[in-house]
Amino acid sequence: MREKLVSVEQAAQIVKDGDHIVFNGSMDWTPMAMLRELARREIRGITALGVVGGAMNLDFLLGAGVADQVETCSLGFDEYARVAPNYERLQKQGRMRMLDNT
Amino acid sequence: MYTMIQAGSMGVPFTSTLGYAGTDILERRPDDFKIIENPFDSQERTVVAKAMNPDVAIFHGLKGDRLGNVLVQKHGEELLLAQASRRVIVTVEEIVNSVDFEDSDGWFIPAIHVSAVVHASLGAHPTGVPGLYDADEDRINEYVKASGSDESFNKYLNRYVFEVGSHQQYLELVGLRPELEAVAR
Lengths: 102, 185
What we know:
By secondary structure, chain A is of the alpha/beta class. Chain A is built from four helices and five strands; from the N terminus they run E-H-E-H-E-H-E-H-E.
């Protein structure tokens, strides 16, 4: 059997520029340690998918410049903000693309 | 998208659904959704959604073992996402000798669907993991405030991402020590 336990740095090498990355829809359980490493590695051109919905997962990748496109049915931020805040700023400025998909 | 992911998880090219009928998504995304005749009943038509197989799925879970078996939150979509995706990264709160598929703390995902397991205690911070730790409200409010402009969010990224070299250093920066958290619970 293959050993699959790796460091966060090794796991980040699995992600390539331009990949489509899918996340679950909740604010809790956001894989932030991994997302911060993707930002550190300056991964670019990611499409971030939220099933069902998105929160800090998609918003952080947009804010860090890792993702420039998201596809989901909603992008909230629990009780902390009406809309995911980086998404709101970048969408209003026309600097990203949002695909509506439930 | 859920139905597209379902089709992807099953390895079939598309799946039939009643959703989307009557919405403008059918017109806006003709490459992903179509209305076809039911091959078993020419009187009926149905929406079909094209399969989606994302390059990568990333999520955070409770436990993992060296072979790649993981335990994730109950009632989530993680298993479906893992089955549909080409590569799967799961960060977990703790590494155990063997993840037991009968462990009632969470839902089991077998190693065959997992490419990489990463040990990241408190790996969801500043968001929470129900039952283990609460969301860090002050740090999330700080994130929201920083998101108001490129300049302030870049400052946030410098402080919490670029000026810390590892997850361990991040935890030190925010004043968390995973070994103490583990004892506390």
